[in-house]
Amino acid sequence: MKIIFLDFDGVLNSDRYIRDCGHTGVVLDPSKMKLLKKITDSTGAKIVLTTSWKEHWDKDNTKCDPTGEQINSIFKQYGLEIYDKTPVIRPDRENEIKKWLEDNPETENFAVLDDMRLVADFLTGHTVKTSAFSDALTEKDAEDTIRILKG
């Protein structure tokens, strides 16, 4: 199984996009969602949420709050589905990913899409850092992620 560990803010939207779209809540840029779809279509990877928005989402869809339902709805519009989320181990996203990988040894490869700089040794060669301020996920980032997942 291939996994994309996914952050939202700074990956599926940028500060500029959030400001320009003029609304609050879950704001995901359609162009970034299409790039995410390109990655999953090219690799067969499953999406695991690392974003702080994950607290609204649950694998059992009946346990999602209204924001989690909105997240599912947006992903469904693009033919995407969320597989799982990392556990909450604040403030350390790296340890959340590590714990998820330990609990899911069937993972054959993974990529992390995040605007934060993640430096744990086990993430070397698996991380694509996006820019929250300007472009968020780019075509080049998508290609880099596909290369990582295909090994």
Key terms for this structure?
five-stranded parallel β-sheet, about 150 residues, globular, Rossmann fold, alpha/beta, 5 helices, about 35% helix
Task: Estimate the helix proportion, in percent.
Answer: 25-40%
Amino- and carboxy-terminal Cα gap: 13 Å
Give the structural class: alpha/beta
How much of the polypeptide forms β-strand, as a percent range? 5-15%
The biggest beta sheet, please?
A: 5 strands, parallel
Can you tell me the CATH superfamily? HAD superfamily/HAD-like
Shape: globular
How many E-type strands? 5
Describe this structure in words.
With about 150 residues, the chain is α/β, with parallel strands linked by helices. The protein has one domain: Rossmann fold. The chain has 5 helices and 5 strands. It has a 5-stranded parallel beta sheet with strand order 3-2-1-4-5, covered by helices on one side. Strand 2 (about 45-50), helix 3 (about 65-75) and strand 3 (about 80-85) form a beta-alpha-beta unit. Helix 2 packs parallel to helix 5 (about 140-150). The longest helix has 14 residues, at about 30-45. It is globular.
